[in-house]
């Protein structure tokens, strides 16, 4: 997979009603377990919400976010929750956000490899989502993603050229 999934993945914000098979869902979730984390702390939990009522409530709680409607449309919602204490920190760098990002990327790439869509939704009021998903207070809800069959695949978003971002030997 690797490079194909990396290059073909898009943030999908329109989904078909079609179900995600249990096998595909488990494959996506299992890929997450292999994500790298600071000192292998694995301070993560994933809430899997399929219930349409729950998804509708989350969609409403994050209203205004470009991904809000997709949460109601796609048959599965995944919420990546991190325990900052368990994830640890070093030299003033808390690692839970980094670890959550890697975990989410594993989920998104595994989904893309199966022809499924995702979109990392990071901009929302955690305290509105927390009671809906029953996430305990010590966990940060870092990201949400719908998981489903894309109704529309967006085009490739612009990317910086290597020459603009890579500094060989020294900056
Ligand atoms: C940390 C993070 C937070 C994001 N938050 C949101 C969000 O709240 N809502 C949304 O619709 N997209 C969100 N995105 C998706 C980005 O807008 C998207 O990845 C970017 O425009 C590049 O497009 P692509 O993913 O199709 O390559 C987020 C992405 C990342 C990595």
Quick structural summary:
By secondary structure, the protein is of the alpha+beta class. It has 8 helices and 5 strands, in the order ααβααβαββααβα.
Description:
The structure is a single chain. The longest helix has 18 residues, at 96-113. α2 packs antiparallel against α6 and α3 packs antiparallel against α7. Helix content is 40%, strand content 15%. It has a three-stranded antiparallel β-sheet with strand order 1-2-5, with helices on both faces. A two-stranded antiparallel sheet has the order 3-4. With 171 residues, the chain is an alpha+beta fold. The chain contains eight helices and five strands; from the N terminus they run ααβααβαββααβα. The structure holds flavin mononucleotide.
